[in-house]
Design brief:
The protein is of the alpha+beta class. The chain folds into 2 domains: about 30-285, Butyryl-CoA Dehydrogenase, subunit A, domain 2 (Beta Barrel), CATH 2.40.110; about 290-540, Butyryl-CoA Dehydrogenase, subunit A, domain 3 (Up-down Bundle), CATH 1.20.140. Helices cover about 50% and strands about 15% of the residues. Strands 3, 4, 5, 6, 7, 8 and 9 form a 7-stranded mixed beta sheet that branches. The chain has a two-stranded antiparallel sheet with strand order 1-2. A two-stranded antiparallel ribbon has the order 10-11. Strand 10 (about 325) and strand 11 (about 330) form a beta hairpin. Helix 2 packs parallel to helix 6 (about 115-125), helix 11 crosses helix 17 (about 485-505) and helix 17 packs antiparallel against helix 18 (about 505-520). The site of flavin-adenine dinucleotide has 24 residues, from strand 3, strand 5, helix 13 and helix 14. The site of flavin-adenine dinucleotide (FAD) has 24 residues, from strand 3, strand 5, helix 13 and helix 14.
Length: about 550
Amino acid sequence: MLDRYGYATHEVLNQPPPLADYDAYETDQNLRAIVRAFGAGWAGPKLAQAGRTVGGAHVQLLARQANRHIPELRTHDRFGNRVDQIEFHPAWHELMTLAMGQEVHSLAWTERRPGAQVARAALSYLWNEGENGIMCPILMTYASIPTLRTNPDLAREWEPKVLSTRYDPRQTRAADKTGVTVGMAMTEKQGGSDLRQTQSVAERDGGGWRIVGHKWFFSVPHSDIFIALARTERGVSCFLVPGWLPDRSRNRIMIQRLKDKAGNKSNASSEVEFRGAYARLIGEEGHGIREAISMGHLTRLECALSSAGIMRLAVAQAAHHASHRRAFQRTLIDQPMMTNVIADLHLEATAAAWLAFRVAAALDGEGNESERLLNRIGAPIAKYWICKRVVSLVHEALECHGGNGFIEDHLMARLYREAPLNGIWEGSGNVMALDVLRSMAREPDSVPALLTEIAAAKGQDPRLDAAIRDIESDLSDLSRHEGQARRLVERLATLLCASLLVRHAPHEVADAYVASRVEGPWTGAYGTLPRGAETGKIARMALAV
Ligand SMILES: Cc1cc2nc3c(=O)[nH]c(=O)nc-3n(C[C@H](O)[C@H](O)[C@H](O)COP(=O)(O)OP(=O)(O)OC[C@H]3O[C@@H](n4cnc5c(N)ncnc54)[C@H](O)[C@@H]3O)c2cc1C
């Protein structure tokens, strides 16, 4: 169309339609296979509902708004009273209402049937395709239940509200609310990985305690309760700290400022001072790190699931773009190198999902010792590996979009800023690798539990069989050298992924994964699948159709 000066401008050609209003569950063949394989098929209707919600244009809009209009700290009201409140764009609260209404934080604890952990994990995976910032309060709320249950009085008092699916945005005492969220107060300036350095001090005050100290990272500071660490005369101990007191006053938690973060913009993370904050002891005095780690174990697995969800979204977006965009007379997805890139990205996302969900499925094996051990060693392996791989995967998926991927209008830019975070919080990469070594040293039976799971694929692919023989003989040497821990964890992760794919995934996927990650020399860069890999077929599996 010509304008009045006779120029044709802005005729939009060769731009893909947005990937929106699709069903993120129905179109994810891999997730559906995982859900069936690990006994959570009964949750299909809930997952379909979540899939439609997170794939919907409305949630995409809410996520964009919540990340553009970021939370603000309001320390005082207009009369000068200290209030320590966080103001959010309404989109944040709507997202929280939707996700908690779909039981993302609660299903594993309320649905007492096999596969409940996997079903909830699938909700979490899907919601990470919706909006990542809200998943911080949701994962902490989910993971708090076992810690609360160590103290039956606290569990009786808090569990019904923690498991409630009626999100309540009000920042006031919990007794007046329909549902609550839980935060964690561990990290201090002098050390986040080494929690033995905790300096905050707790002193008895009647039947409760008072905490004085600071927390350098304190996300969701408007939470209703916090699981906090502070030192007593018996050592670092674990406490429950309410955000508000029964008389409706704010507990003595003073928010100093909100963190100006690289990503995770929609979520509020802060620095706080506890100035005599009222608290109640959880578990045994002096054993707080044990309690914190039991919660951290679940949140770590959650980081792996979250990164797997981000991977799926990034690959679906890249495949969608490449299947609509043409360059040099061909659709991008059919340009041989791009075909290889998209196929390779799909392999990685597929493997990540199987790995994270296999470890989550072990949580469903209550009372089964080998499943407990597999979960124990598998959670840090999955967190280490998937949270490393998500960063380069999102980068590559962004690049598939060309310049559009780098522009804030497009969600790839947001994912790019989000991707490194799961690798940091709840224990950074080195700390995860050390945790794998610790699990091997303290619970040596976790090693055979893991190797048995890997070896379940024996006899199906000679290249994998050879690698399994190698790791069995290398293991004791590698695990003796702390400096080699990343190499060890990387090998265990790729072998476990290969084993799961050989047993469960389409043949083309398993074959290409083994050929690239197990058999061949592998640089880790995407788009380097060897000749013979059925890249055309695999790349089309990435499409959300
Ligand atoms: C956005 C955001 C929100 C957060 N929210 C919360 C929250 O709500 N509550 C909370 O308690 N914390 C929170 N954290 C803190 C987070 O858990 C810590 O940042 C993390 O555990 C690392 O601790 P650190 O920052 O003190 O780094 P450090 O402990 O100083 O670690 C720095 C580096 O050293 C490595 N390292 C540590 N020990 C060893 C070792 N022995 N050998 C080799 N390498 C080692 C680590 O892997 C890391 O790479 C948040 C962090 C971020 C970024």
